Amino acid sequence: MTGSIYSASFKRQVEASRLELTGETTSQWLGVAAMRSAFCIALNSTPASWTIEAQLPDGGVVTVGQYNSGTLFNPTTPRYITVNAMCGLPIRFVSSVSQSDPNLWVICKS
Predict the structure, then answer these.
(1) Long-range pairs for 29-34: beta carbons < 8 A, 24 or more residues apart
(2) Could you read off the pLDDT of 17-32 as tens digits, one per residue?
């Protein structure tokens, strides 16, 4: 019996986005439709609870993730968001409190 092994490598697409907050609480919409995971990094942030919202095709907004205070954008502990939030729709991040001088990043991978 003979056989062969096929190997292939795939390069994952990576996008880094700095969050720009409107009214010090709500980020811009991120077009992450082709992405499968997102890693959240805070270089500077105010402790807060965070909600992740998705924008529906009709313009409606739905919550796809919620994080307690200090668990999402924590300067000492970067974190992946739940896979449920990576639903193929644009997403944004909403803080429960105003962020003064934030430095927040979302790194998405396909």
Answers:
(1) 29/55, 29/90, 29/91, 29/92, 30/90, 30/91, 30/92, 30/106, 30/108, 31/90, 32/86, 32/90, 32/91, 32/108, 33/88, 33/89, 33/90, 34/110
(2) 999 999 999 999 999 8
